[in-house]
Every structure is written in structure tokens, then in C-alpha cells.
């Protein structure tokens, strides 16, 4: 595993204190915390032998300190209690799987678990089974059980969690311990606690409170924000002393200092976060763009799957997604449009043969309307051809040589794409047919509509979007929502009953699901679109169908689940190849800081003073003032405007005083990192542009405020605030 530069230095510098502390630490709780911290270092530091010998020393201490009843007391040979037993179990449970052959703690773990289960009083743990439960003892006991395999499904764990949830404990230490214990027992109703923890991180905290909260939040990587690396920067600044790393905290009311608690939790936070950052759960948008581009056929189109002949429908949906990529792959788009131009003649011939608009013609014409440079004459010719298949001027002919909802929806959508606005008559006809979805019209012995189906309804709703009112579409959208299958997806229909009364359910379709979700999201239906995007991204990994991939990728971007360009994606590339660092002359300190970071990550920085010209290829960093250049070339999803002393970013207004914004971007062949800032922050810019903060940047962009809040003339890490993380 590669450990981030700054994390590695903190971890290595912590060894001196952690390995020497057992010489004077004689109680179980502190020994347990030291063992947990040293275990987190295993395999991540250079001086592995010292770490291993210190781990063995502490394991031996805890084994000999265990009482015959299986528990531990505050000191060896003292009466057992759940608090120290919980800490000891969490510590030795964490070392049992380390590849150190001489460690065998299985019997100690079994005895410790038996002690905790026997001392449970039905709600939680007190100092004895007869005393009332105490939140602190209970949460640490849960931690110890959770590390050793006990989960929320166990009755004892479930009751203890219920007891803890009955208290609205708001102290930073208890919030941290709850998050740690809940992580290990698998209790996932923690969103409120996580929010509270991040709120606390942005405020005033003691070193041990900050260290505990920071470690706890690293256990929830899916919720990480840039507030976490900011907290690590603060911890590093507080704990760095020459060649070692150690934090201290007054032990009120005693005239002593506690170094074990804050240092151990801080080290576990640095070690844990180095693991978190190495995990990638979802592809980046640039990887999605590359995947769709890799599936393009030599003739410019896309088939339904890789290697199949090009078809209009997959080509259309591939282009719809690629239009969101940054930078837009114009060469590939133009090549696809050329394929559609060449294919148009055969698509029109099929329409003439069948006497109605076909799917192949529909998607071919949409490609040309949206992605080609048709002359006015070509556009009018296409409009005239489409209108040839209208029935009495109000609808389009389909099956059975009568007006059909499907072909009428095709006609409306095509005219809209060709900038023809007069589609009220066919829209009104569609709305007159039904009050809940659309299907096929049958004209024997008289015209009736068959059962509505999802694909026809989707196309009609897409056609009527922007034409009919929300009130007119609401019953049809409600019908569409009601067709959702039990697994949350959509199929051709929800259920169907045949002549013999047998009920069948249609198989789910990723295509219909995405198109349904897009419509429902457009009209404000309150579904969990992030969860659906996550599910669909996992499902589409197993699919080889290009339409499904393109639709899911597009939905993931447009729903906001995946920003088009992520800071973490750009940061991950800083160690690869050459990076040109462009900067205005006054911003040389910031340019030099980012150059040092690029070099420490393994990249090659090349400084270019005063050169802020547009770059189309390669990797680049731009450092300058607000309004110094147009970022839209590299990232069209972050809009910045400057008005006097204020900066507006994606609709949010900020004072320019002390403001710093970091934005990711792309060139045609590389990545871009944009740093815009108020010139007054330059003396303290290293508090933001440092390996720890940069390594763990998250989101679509981050806005910082850097101000001397206490008026002492110097900026400290706790005076750097994150105002927004997109």
C-alpha cells in the first residue's frame, strides 16, 4: 500500500513516542490505546521491527493483566470493569489478524467476551451488573464486542444500542465513541451523528476531542468531506515537535498531561485515512467517457454491444452522454454525425416502405438535429419528410394505418429538435386519449387502447415535456411511478393478466428505469435518486449493452451523484508525468507550494510565470486571482463571476476577502487544477496548499476562507474554514 506523503511522515514520526510510552504507561486503558495505534501503523512505516516489538510487548502486558473472570481492571490485579475490558478487547481484537506468528489472543478474547456478556444488566453496562447502565461504559464495551465480531443482530448489542440512542449525548468524545462503536457493530443509522461530528470539527476543540472525532469520521469514507483533511492539518501542526509527533492534553483536575489519548487517536486517524483514499467505489466521469469512446465503431456509430454493426439508437444515447464530458470529444461526435448523415437515406427508405416513422429513422434524425450542422434547406427537407406521415395534420400514422401514440410522440420530439414549435394539435390529441399512460391503439371492431405500457408512455411523456402543463402530465407521471417493480426498477409493465387469469411481472429494464427516473426527477417527484444512481452504476458493470451504459452514466452525472470532474480524480494524477504550473507574478508563493507537492507525489512541475493562455492538452495548474481567466474551458460546471468585493460561485455569494477556491478541470488529454485566491491570503497559503490538504480534497470544488480571526497578525490552521464543498 502506498501511504500519502504527509501521512507517512506523521506515522513514522509517531513511532518514537508510541514505542517508548509503554515504559511508563502502567494502566490497561492507555496500554490498549497504544496497542491500537501501533497496530494501525503495521505495514505502513519504515521502522517495522520497532512497531512489531512494541506490539508484542503490549500484547503480553494485556494478557498478564487479564483477571481470572475474563475482565480487566484499571491496573493489573484490580477488580474487573466493563470500561477497561472494552478497551482491552478492542485492542487485542485488532491485532489477532496481524501477520505476526507469535500472537495468539484467542482464549483472552473468549474470556473477555464472556465477562462482558455476563456483566450486561439488560440495558447496557455499569460498573457491576447491579448498578445502572452508564453511556461511557456501554459504548466502549460495544466497541470491544464489535471488533470481535458481535453485530447489531445480536440481542445484547441491539439492546445496548437502543440504550445509547435514548440519550441525546452531544459531547464530542461521546459522539466520536458512538461512531466508532456503531461502525464495528454495523449499526448504520448514523447520519445525524456524522453531521454533528463534522459540525464539531469546524469549531473549537481540545486535541483529544479533535483526534477522536477525526478518527471516528475516517471510518465512514462514503461521508468524507474536506473538513477532515483540514482537521488533520490542525492535528499535525499541534503534534509536530522536531522529529517526533505527540499531542498533549491537560488531565483536569490533575496537574498532569495526557499524551496517550490524543496521540493514539490522531495516529489511527492518519493511518485509517491513508487506507480510505486508496479505495475507488465508482468510476470517475472521465473513465466513463473513455469507456463509451472505446466502444465506438470505426464508421463512427455504436452498436447495441461492442463489435455489432452501428445502429441509430445506441449511437444517439452514446452522444447524449458524451456531450456531458469535459472536454467534449468533438472529433468522436462529428464522426458519429457523419455516420448518421450516411445512414439517413436507408432510414428514410424504411419509413417509406412501412408507411410510418420507425425507431431507426427517429434516432437517426435526432442525431442530425442535435449534433450535425444541417443547412436550412436540409433541415426543412427533413421536416417536410416527417410531416408526410401525419394523419389529417394532428397525429402520426402507425400500426394498423391509424394514428398511434408512439409515432405521434416521435413526430413531436423530432419537430421540437428541429425547432418547430407548432405541436399543440398532436399534443392535445395525445392528452385526450387517456388519463393514465399510453399504449397501442387497436381499430377492430372500433378504436380502443390496449393496456398502457412503460416504453410508449416514456416516449410520449418525453415528447410532451415542455409542451403540456404539469397538471396535464401529473396523472400520467403518477401512473408511471405506480409501474415501479418491487426491486425499484421499471420493466415493460408492472403486472399483466392473461386470458386465463395468470399474472406475470415484466423483467426489469435499465433503459426504462433511467428514462423513468429522469422524467420523475424533472417534475419534482421525491425519490432517492442518489441511491438509484448508486444501484444502477453497480448493475451496469455487468451489462455489455451500450444504451444502458450511456444512460446510466448520463443519469449519474445529471442527478448530481457524480460531478463531471472530481478534485480527487485530479489529485490522483499529480504524481504522473509533467505538470505545467501557470501563475500570475504576484502568486509565485502559491505556485511554488503546489510545485513542491507535485514533486513530492512523483510528478514533474514546470513553472510558467505569467502564462495564463488556454491549453488544450496535457496536465496544468493555474494559480491566480478571481476573474484572471475563464475556467469554463476546463470545467463548464463551475460558474464564477466577480462583482466588486464579492465572488459568486454557482449561485452562492462570498466576500472576496480571504477567499480561496480550488476547482478541478480537464483538457483533451490531461487534467487541470485551478487555484483562485485573494492575494492577501498568500502569506498563509501553505495552510491549504500542503500535502495533507491537497491529498484528501473531495468534491466538485472547495471554497475556503482564510482570516485572522483573533487579530494576532498570524493565520493558524484553525482559522482556515471550509465555506462550501460542491
In words, what does this structure look like?
There is one protein chain. This protein is α+β, with helices and mostly antiparallel strands. Among the domains are: 5-276, Glycosyltransferase (Alpha/alpha barrel), CATH 1.50.10.20; 567-725, Chitobiase, domain 2 (2-Layer Sandwich), CATH 3.30.379. The chain is built from 27 helices and 22 strands. A 7-stranded mixed beta sheet has the order 14-13-15-20-19-21-22. It has a 3-stranded antiparallel beta sheet with strand order 16-17-18, with no helix packed on it. Helix 26 links the parallel strand 13 and strand 14 (604-609). The radius of gyration is 31 Å and the shape is globular. Mean pLDDT is 89; it is low at 1-8 and 276-280.
Main beta-sheet strand count, sense and barrel state? 7 strands, mixed
Estimate percent helicity: 40-55%
N-C termini distance: 29 Å
CATH 2nd-level architecture of the domain at 5-276: Alpha/alpha barrel
**Which structural class do you get from the secondary structure elements?**
alpha+beta
- β content, as a range? 5-15%
Gross geometry: globular
The quaternary organization reads as single chain
Counted beta strands: 22
Sheet with the most strands: spatial strand order: 14-13-15-20-19-21-22
Mean residue pLDDT: 89
Q: Please identify the top-level CATH class of the domain at 5-276.
A: Mainly Alpha
**Count of individual helical segments:** 27
Spans with pLDDT under 50 lasting ≥5 residues?
Answer: 1-8, 276-280
What Rg is obtained from the alpha carbons, in whole angstroms? 31 Å
- The fold-level CATH name of the domain at 5-276 is Glycosyltransferase
Amino acid at each position: 500500500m502506498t501511504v500519502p506523503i504527509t501521512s507517512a511522515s506523521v506515522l513514522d514520526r509517531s513511532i518514537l513516542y508510541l514505542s517508548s510510552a509503554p515504559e511508563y504507561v502502567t494502566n490497561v486503558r492507555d496500554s490498549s490505546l497504544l496497542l491500537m495505534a501501533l497496530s494501525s501503523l503495521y505495514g505502513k512505516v519504515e521502522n517495522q521491527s520497532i512497531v512489531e516489538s512494541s506490539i508484542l510487548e503490549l500484547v503480553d502486558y494485556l494478557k498478564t493483566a487479564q483477571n481470572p473472570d475474563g475482565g480487566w481492571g484499571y491496573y493489573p490485579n484490580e477488580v474487573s470493569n466493563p470500561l477497561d475490558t472494552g478497551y482491552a478487547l478492542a485492542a487485542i481484537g485488532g491485532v489477532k489478524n496481524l501477520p505476526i506468528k507469535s500472537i495468539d489472543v484467542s482464549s483472552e478474547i473468549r474470556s473477555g467476551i464472556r465477562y462482558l456478556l455476563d456483566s450486561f444488566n439488560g440495558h447496557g453496562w455499569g460498573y457491576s451488573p447491579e448498578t445502572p447502565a452508564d453511556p461511557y461504559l456501554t459504548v466502549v464495551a460495544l466497541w470491544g464486542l464489535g471488533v470481535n465480531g458481535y453485530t447489531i443482530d445480536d440481542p445484547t448489542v441491539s439492546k445496548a444500542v437502543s440504550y445509547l440512542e435514548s440519550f441525546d449525548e452531544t459531547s464530542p468524545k461521546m459522539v466520536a465513541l458512538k461512531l466508532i462503536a456503531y461502525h464495528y457493530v454495523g449499526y448504520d443509522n448514523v447520519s445525524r451523528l456524522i453531521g454533528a461530528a463534522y459540525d464539531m470539527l469546524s469549531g473549537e476543540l481540545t486535541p483529544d476531542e479533535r483526534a477522536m472525532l477525526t478518527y471516528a469520521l475516517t471510518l465512514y469514507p462514503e461521508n468524507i468531506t474536506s473538513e477532515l483533511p483540514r482537521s488533520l492539518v490542525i492535528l499535525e501542526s499541534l503534534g509536530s515537535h522536531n522529529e517526533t509527533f505527540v499531542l498533549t492534553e491537560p488531565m483536569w483536575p490533575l496537574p498532569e498531561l495526557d499524551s496517550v489519548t490524543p496521540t493514539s487517536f490522531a495516529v489511527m486517524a492518519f493511518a485509517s485515512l491513508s487506507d480510505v483514499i486508496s479505495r475507488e467505489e465508482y468510476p470517475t466521469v472521465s473513465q466513463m467517457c473513455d469507456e463509451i469512446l472505446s466502444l465506438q465503431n470505426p464508421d463512427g456509430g455504436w452498436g447495441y454491444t461492442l463489435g455489432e454493426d452501428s445502429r441509430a439508437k445506441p449511437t444517439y444515447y452514446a452522444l447524449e452522454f458524451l456531450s456531458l464530458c469535459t472536454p467534449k470529444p468533438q472529433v468522436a461526435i462529428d464522426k458519429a454525425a457523419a455516420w448518421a448523415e450516411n445512414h439517413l437515406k436507408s432510414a428514410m427508405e424504411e419509413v417509406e416502405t412501412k408507411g410510418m416513422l420507425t425507431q431507426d429513422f427517429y434516432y437517426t434524425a435526432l442525431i442530425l438535429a442535435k449534433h450535425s450542422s444541417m443547412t436550412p434547406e436540409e433541415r426543412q427537407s427533413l421536416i417536410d419528410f416527417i410531416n408526410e406521415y401525419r394523419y389529417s395534420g394532428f397525429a402520426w400514422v402507425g400500426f394498423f394505418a391509424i394514428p398511434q401514440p408512439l409515432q405521434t410522440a416521435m413526430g413531436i420530439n423530432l419537430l421540437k429538435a428541429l425547432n418547430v414549435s407548432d405541436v399543440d394539435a398532436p399534443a392535445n390529441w395525445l392528452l385526450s386519449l387517456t388519463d393514465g399512460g399510453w399504449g397501442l391503439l387497436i381499430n377492430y371492431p372500433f378504436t380502443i387502447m390496449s393496456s398502457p405500457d412503460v416504453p410508449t408512455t416514456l416516449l410520449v411523456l418525453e415528447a410532451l415535456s415542455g409542451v403540456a402543463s404539469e397538471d396535464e402530465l401529473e396523472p400520467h407521471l403518477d401512473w408511471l411511478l405506480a409501474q415501479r417493480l418491487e426491486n425499484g426498477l421499471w420493466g415493460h409493465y408492472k403486472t399483466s393478466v392473461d386470458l386465463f387469469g395468470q399474472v406475470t411481472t415484466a423483467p426489469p429494464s435499465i433503459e426504462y428505469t433511467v428514462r423513468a427516473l429522469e422524467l420523475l426527477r424533472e417534475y419534482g417527484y421525491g425519490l432517492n435518486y442518489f441511491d438509484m444512481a448508486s444501484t444502477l452504476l453497480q448493475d451496469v458493470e455487468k451489462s455489455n449493452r451500450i444504451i444502458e451504459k450511456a444512460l446510466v452514466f448520463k443519469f449519474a452525472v445529471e442527478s448530481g451523484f457524480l460531478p463531471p470532474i472530481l478534485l480527487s480524480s485530479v489529485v490522483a494524477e499529480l504524481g504522473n508525468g509533467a505538470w505545467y504550473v501557470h501563475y500570475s507574478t504576484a502568486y509565485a508563493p502559491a505556485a511554488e507550494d503546489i510545485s513542491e507537492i507535485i514533486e513530492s507525489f512523483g510528478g514533474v512541475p514546470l513553472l510558467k510565470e505569467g502564462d495564463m493562455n488556454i491549453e488544450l492538452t496535457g496536465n496544468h495548474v493555474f494559480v491566480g486571482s478571481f476573474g484572471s481567466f475563464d475556467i469554463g474551458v476546463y470545467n463548464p460546471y463551475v460558474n464564477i463571476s466577480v462583482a466588486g468585493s464579492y465572488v459568486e460561485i454557482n449561485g452562492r455569494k462570498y466576500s472576496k476577502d480571504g477567499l480561496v477556491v480550488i476547482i478541478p478541470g480537464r483538457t483533451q488529454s490531461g487534467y487541470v487544477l485551478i487555484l483562485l485566491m485573494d492575494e492577501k491570503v498568500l502569506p498563509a497559503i501553505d495552510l491549504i496548499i500542503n500535502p495533507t490538504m491537497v491529498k484528501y480534497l473531495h468534491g466538485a470544488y472547495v471554497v475556503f476562507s482564510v482570516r485572522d480571526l483573533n487579530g494576532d497578525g498570524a493565520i493558524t490552521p484553525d482559522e482556515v474554514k471550509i465555506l462550501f464543498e460542491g
